[in-house]
Amino acid sequence: MADSGNAPKPSSSVKLVLLGEAAVGKSSLVLRFVNNDFQENKEPTIGAAFLTQKCNLPTRTIKFEIWDTAGQERFASLAPMYYRNAQAALVVYDLTKPTSLIKAKHWVAELQRQASPGIVIALVGNKLDLTNDGAGSGGEGEGAGADGEGDARKVTTEEAKTYAEEEGLLFFETSAKTGYNVTEVFTAIANAIPETSLKTARGTGASHAAARSEEQRVNLNGARDPNAKEGCAC
Amino acid sequence: MESLSDTFWDVVISGTGLQQSLLALALSRSNKKILHIDKNDYYGHHEAALSLQEAESWVAAVQAHAKPGYSHASVTKPEGTTGLSFPRAYSLALAPQFIHARSALLQQLVSSGAYRQVEFVAVGSFFIFKPPQDASQKPTLARIPSTREDVFATTDIPAKAKRGLMKFLKFVLDYENSPQTELWQPDANIPLTEFLSKQFKMDNQLQTYITTLSLSLDGKITTKDGLTVIHRHLTSMGMYGPGFAAIYPKWGGLSEIAQVSCRAGAVGGAVYMLGNGVKTVDDYTSPIELRLHSGDIIKTRAFVEESDSIGVIGRPETTRLVAIIGSDLKALFETTIEGAPVPAVAIVAFPAGSISTADGKASEYPVYLSVHSSDTGECPKGQCVCYLTTLTPQESGPQDHLLTQALDSFLLSVSDDQVPQCLYKLSYTRSGGSDGDGERLFTIHFSLKPVTLSFDDSALENVRKAWKIVMCDEIMRDEAVDKDYMKFTDRQNAAEDDET
Fold first, then answer.
1. Rg (CA), chain B
2. Considering the domain boundaries, does residue B12 fall inside one?
3. How do residues B465-478 score in pLDDT, each as one tens digit?
4. C-alpha angle with apex B183: B148 to B156, nearest 5 degrees?
């Protein structure tokens, strides 16, 4: 999934924003995707709130720039910057917690109001490992809930799927803990991003190849020795 | 979640303007308990970038006297024009300053790693507006040559004058050293134009070229200050790539830097709240006690306030006009050197006297126009955003008319068969501001800064001072802490595989 380092394919950056109620596993999903790692009892997000990961498709490489909310959702103080020019959004809910789906619907509405019109939105029900189906681990989680039998599912696949179809969202149920369906989410998003938006949404948007948009960016890492006396004027 | 009042904060930062936000960035690895609030429901305060919707509420707030420092705000949509896109397709910057490549701000963004979340575009050519010789002609724009190759290639300047200009460029590059210092130091405090005419025998046209590069809003910059700015311009040239001396943050200028800095603050654990300001402050106690508009009473060791003080008496106000143009004005954004990125910003200067006010008087101050292409992300493709700035002469009102005049003349000068249309105008007046930030024990105070065309590094020093006040215990324990200001190692995963 990650870099395979083959012959260069056209590569584009895609800004992806991550939304959802606290403790639904947003950061865990990303951590699984980026590091193939999972931390039990992860602290609320501070730290790695900006991550990148490449996704290799047959014809192109997508570099996801993943923007985690960094706890800014706490007082509804996310920056407009956060949505602006995002080409993809991952809206996460906890399928053991119905209120988190309601919150997810709020985020979808907010994105439809605030984000770029062409944004690709994926609705993701996380913590599938706490239910009896899928995920392959059969509800080993300690938080498996009071329902006995280890099935803590409170949101049916049907309900969320129907909603996602109505709103034109990609839909997945995942487990960040087992890794089930996680890369599939990101691959599906990468595939759903129209080629045209890759050319235009970032950088120049000229009718040339996507590569050109990268050229347009001024790279601050490429600075010459800051103490150099001569700029270029002579 | 624990309530705001239950926490004893190390610092409460009020306002998300650039200085406050940079402070949040500087403190983002300090493990301090930080509450960062803004009474507005958007980030950036004086440096904000607004959608058209937000711009309209902003204008309404200025009209209701709720935005100290601003007045005479209005929005107009010229009748009979079409092509304005939906409001969110625009991002109008209240602070459209570009940043010289040598600015310490960029060094700090790099050393802190924050630059990775900002996209920069290049600032391209500087032009001078030339009024027509007679009424039957169109006004024109002349590109200012600012490198030797440029001077050599230009056809606008006669050969003899070229030699003078070459000589001057060479002089400026080494102006801080002897023997150059002997030439200018005696004249350090006279107007730069006088110095240019005296020492380099420059005519009016060349003087105008040079003062334009000095970006002086009143056109009366001193020799010393002028040489400093031009030196910065020339030595910035080529630093981040061929053909440009300055860059501009995409999607709304300094607003973007403020937001990225706040985000870094949030990543570091600071708590962010918009739409909640400080109502009252009691900083004669320790800890400082604040009452917020939300009713929360907050205790904090240090407090950073934004000052809405109106500025220094006697310092001229600036009038600004922001216009959305229904054309991409492509000719302004051509690269002049091979391998240079396509610039997204062009600067046009209207020298004092080159246009007239409503009552027929020649303009007293220069007018500066920054044209931003859609590559800045501030407008849709096929359009441009123009930011016009001029000082308001004492005893005269806002210069809306003069700026409209400048805009119209500019559009005429870049027209082919059709004059590009103006689709939307936002105009306002901003107070002169004040350079002075201040502090009293643990209260730090950032003031509204004077308008400048390029980012002024002096704002950074006070951010650092504020940081020292908040970090005083740590610095007292270990002086080395001070040296690591804004120097952060990457957080895990943050930036692998970058720049490949």
1. 23
2. yes
3. 999 999 999 998 99
4. 30
The pLDDT, as a whole number, for residue B309 is: 59
How much of chain B, in percent, has pLDDT values that exceed 70?
96
B154 and B232 belong to one structural domain: yes
**B429 within a domain of the structure (yes/no):** no
| B183 & B217 share domain | yes
Structure confidence by residue, pLDDT tens digits, B379-410: 999 999 999 999 998 878 889 999 999 999 99
User: Token pair of B183, please?
Assistant: 């030439």
- Mean pLDDT estimate for chain B: 90
Contact B42 A3 (CB under 8 A): no
Chain A residues touching residue B239 (CB < 8 angstroms): 223-224, 226, 231
- Residue B223 belongs to a domain: yes
Confidence of residue B36 (pLDDT cuts 50, 70, 90): very high
In a domain, B215, yes or no: yes
* Percent of residues, chain A, with pLDDT higher than 70: 70
More confident site: B223 or A219:
B223
Digit-coded pLDDT (tens) for A168-180: 999 999 999 999 9
> What are the structure tokens assigned to B167, written together?
């000589």
Q: Is residue B170 located within the same domain as residue B224?
A: yes
Q: How confident is the model at residue A223 (pLDDT cuts 50, 70, 90)?
A: low
pLDDT > 60? residue A229: no
> What pLDDT is attached to residue A113?
84
Band (A45; pLDDT cuts 50, 70, 90): low
Q: State whether B301 and B265 are in the same domain.
A: yes
Instruction: Among B176, B203, B236, identify where a domain stops.
Output: B236
Interface test with chain B among A55, A110, A113, A220, by most B beta carbons within 10 Å = A220
On the question of pLDDT at B326 being above 90, the answer is: yes
The residue type at B368? Y
User: Which residues of chain B lie closer than 8 angstroms to A205, CB-CB?
Assistant: 374-375, 381
Distance from CA of A227 to the nearest CA of B (A): 10
Q: State the pLDDT confidence band at B312, using cuts at 50, 70 and 90.
A: low
* Residue partners of B11: CB distance under 8 A and separation at least 6: B27, B32, B33, B34, B35, B300, B301, B302, B303, B304, B470
Q: Which domain covers residue B211, as residue numbers?
A: 147-236
Secondary structure of residue B437 in the 3-state scheme: coil
Last residue of a domain, one of B203, B236, B269: B236
| Cβ contacts of B238 on chain A, cutoff 8 Å | 224, 231-232
Number of C-alpha atoms within 13 angstroms, CB side, residue B384? 27
Total Cβ atoms within 10 A of residue B42: 21
Distance CA B450, CA B320 (A): 13
Number of other CB atoms surrounding residue A222 within 10 Å: 10
Q: Is B266 found in the same domain as B231?
A: no
Whole-prediction pTM: 0.88
- Say yes or no: B215 and B175 in one domain: yes
Residue position matching structure tokens 């939307």: B424
What total number of domains does chain B contain? 2
CATH number at residue B223: 1.10.405.10
- Report the residue of chain B nearest A44, measured CA to CA: B269
Chain B contact set for A79 (CB, 8 A): 43, 259, 262-263
